[in-house]
Amino acid sequence: MTTISTIGIIAAALTTGAYIPQAYKTIKTRSTKDLSIVTFTMLFIGTILWFIYGLYINDTPLMLANGITATLSGIIFSLKIKSFGRRRRR
């Protein structure tokens, strides 16, 4: 493994891991009140595009990191959409 690959893996682990506390808290509390829908829309779409790019260039760390991050941000995004719908009905 090259030094640059190691840097990529560490970066992927850190940026992906950064979503875990927010996803855990959001799932546990079911509260998305203070989360920006615009931010999570952009993050969700961005990580999906990074995942597709990783597929195209056959970069496993890029695919893994962004696949996991897309999943986590997708969960938060879907909970935000659900809570947005509930607030509109009130």
UniProtKB/TrEMBL annotation:
Pfam families cross-referenced by the UniProt entry: PQ-loop
GO CC terms: membrane
Keyword Transport recorded: no
GO MF annotation terms: sugar transmembrane transporter activity
TM spans (from-to): 6-24, 36-56, 62-81
Subcellular location: Membrane
Protein's membrane topology: Multi-pass membrane protein
Major localization listed first in the record, in broad terms: membrane
InterPro entries for this protein: PQ-loop_rpt, SemiSWEET
Keywords, in A-Z order: Membrane, Transmembrane, Transmembrane helix
Protein name: MtN3 and saliva related transmembrane protein
Organism name: Niastella caeni
